[in-house]
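Continuing the batch. This is chain 6 of the set; chains 1 through 5 are on the previous pages. Same settings as before, nothing changed between runs. Recording input and output for traceability.
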Amino acid sequence: MSDPTHAGTAATGRRLLTVTALAAAAAVAFGLVSRHNAFAAVQKRSIDAAVINVSTTLPSRGGTGVLVLPGTLETDNESGLYARVQGFVKKLHADIGQQVKAGQLLAEIDTPELDEQIRQAEADLANSRATEELARATAARWQQLLDQKLVARQTAEEKFADAMVRKAAVDAQSANVARLRQLQSFRRVTAPFAGTITARGVNVGQLVTAAGAVNGASSGTASSLYRISSAGALRLFLAVPQAQAGMMKPGTTAKVSVPEQPGKSYSAHVVRNSGSIDPVSRSLRVELAVDDASGSLLPGAYVQAAFEITAAADVLRLPVSTLIFRGKGTMVAVATADNTASLRKVQLGRDFGTEFEVVDGLSANDAVILNPPDSLVDGQAVKVVSPEQKPAS
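Output for chain 6:
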């Protein structure tokens, strides 16, 4: 006969064991579900992070474009004035910003050494002239004796030759004196043309040499006394890309603007071009004449010249911000209908500064990605955002 108390205790133990097992199974199931949900969330975030937000633009067609090129204004003539003689700067008659006329005295140089050389050369010339006069008189007397056949011809001819040598010495001394006097005239530095003094490189009392060295030391680079720019018309030199070289004919007009004068422009026209493409920069050097009757523009100023360019109606254009430069060539990224990026190799035409022509590799309905990241690869998932939204970096 079984014990009722023992049977009840065994049943209670089985119930507790069952409850414990169920609780453990529930805890394991909850943990598995939580870990699955966390993994799914991480996977979703990873997928979302792999998708790049981009903005797109459609290619535009033909129309009139603007080619903007930078350049620096120059005067018709600009020159540095250098010393032609060695000496000390005695007096300066002009300074920077001063308007001067052609031939106007700008500086005086004191040349004591040159003055002494002139005095010595003049003394040598006087001595040579006296010697030549004596030799000429002697030759005349020997000619008379020769006519009377009182002396030998050879001896007389020696006297004649000596007179000619003395005369040649006088000519050489005269030329030397003239050369030194010509150098002495360079003590007065004058303006070669009318213009404005833009720089002064010396002070009163400084030593200058004919090579342009200051204070007697030559560094290999000549130092100018003054720098002068001519007044009048201004010139603008541009490096025009090879693609636009054909349109740069004499008479082609442009609008010149200065950054510090917003909203204002000056007319200019092409005067000439170099007639050849620079093989290094692949550009054509073009000279423009700038119309500035008001005198508002200053030589040396940075300006921009804008040319109007008419393109063919069937040629597509894109902003420069769409270009991708890879080892395979120039490319653009197109956002496809399945929200992936497709890298397309394109053939470029003319460059308009802010835009460029696409000759081949693109259609008018392609949504081209603006500012594509450097890490973008072909087939990568993208999400097109509205232009008002900032694309993700």
